[in-house]
């Protein structure tokens, strides 16, 4: 009976405090299995990078590829943090030094060709001669990918094709899925030839996996808390599949791990410690009020977007903006979020609805928020600029907006997913990519002060 070991990580999001012990563990396990003539693969299921991390931001993710190389990964797929938080040129450069296969089958060039750094599937020939086929897909965000110059395709259609192709060459098929648990369940129902689906994106934790038909689903949470370990027992047919999660907090500390993580932080800080402009005054932040900083950012957002008015939350600002020289590091600490701006064309009734929702949502300012790209603490006060309700009318730049008349409204992409303003999810919108909020502020600061 052949035993195949597959170790997997997912949704690390550049949380690297436990990385030294994770790397050491993976290296030790590979050496152990090789000594015992057992096959071993190490894979990552996407969102390894997160540009809210200074080390990652300073290198546009390339530092993460070095880490994966050091841990001897065999294959990765991309998550949305690789796919839509990097400009196309940066993503095309991300894996130039990779010593592993990058597998994703639903991301294409506009002409339909797969990127030069990726492949739709890969077949690994193990020492025993058994062939292990690996397919992979990433979550489709067409508004983002299309804007960035990519073509993102339906993952289920492309996976069906890749599975059929890999099946001609491989004895066993596994899938690296950055699609989320619900999609993994659907995939398991549709594709009976897949032995294992390694899950991610929704940060779900499946301690011992979840069976759907003959397919075992895995999920290892987020932030490097767990390493997944799956085992396939094979003797010409798959006889048994099992999976477990290793809690990295229980692994023995790696000697010098704190120094290593601190050195990464210092390296990133040094690269970002470059002056971008010099202010003539101090700009304070406030989470529960308007502030000098929110006014300045509103000017930046309106200037960059060309919109008539804007709204955003005060909780995006994590620091004040000091008087004097301001560096890229200062701006990153202030606005670490991988959040983009976007524009809507809204009419009088739609603006009225937004104002009504804000007025009713008394609990929003102190609500703690995780996800949607937000890397702060609380939502903070919802701030509106250049539009208001007065005497029963909606005023934009102090002019009454007539029924049916539309204006351009700038906001943050975190408000387009339906959680805060449900109606915005279905409305046409234009994402302003690839710039993050910090880039928008930097561009305006350079224009304003230099």
From TrEMBL:
Q: Cellular component per GO?
A: outer membrane-bounded periplasmic space
Q: Which residues form the Calcineurin-like phosphoesterase domain?
A: 5-204
List keywords of the entry alphabetically: Hydrolase, Nucleotide-binding, Signal
- 5'-Nucleotidase C-terminal domain segment(s): 285-388
A Gene Ontology biological process noted in the UniProt record is: nucleotide catabolic process
InterPro entries, A to Z = 5'-Nucleotdase_C, 5'-Nucleotdase_C_sf, 5_nucleotidase/apyrase, Calcineurin-like_PHP, Metallo-depent_PP-like, Pesterase_YunD
Which positions carry the signal peptide feature in this UniProt record?
none
Gene Ontology terms for molecular function:
5'-nucleotidase activity; nucleotide binding; UDP-sugar diphosphatase activity
Query: Per the similarity annotation, which family is this?
Result: Belongs to the 5'-nucleotidase family.
Database matches in PANTHER family: 5'-NUCLEOTIDASE-RELATED (PTHR11575), 5-NUCLEOTIDASE FAMILY PROTEIN (PTHR11575:SF23)
The protein, known as: 5'-nucleotidase
Organism per entry: Candidatus Kurthia intestinigallinarum
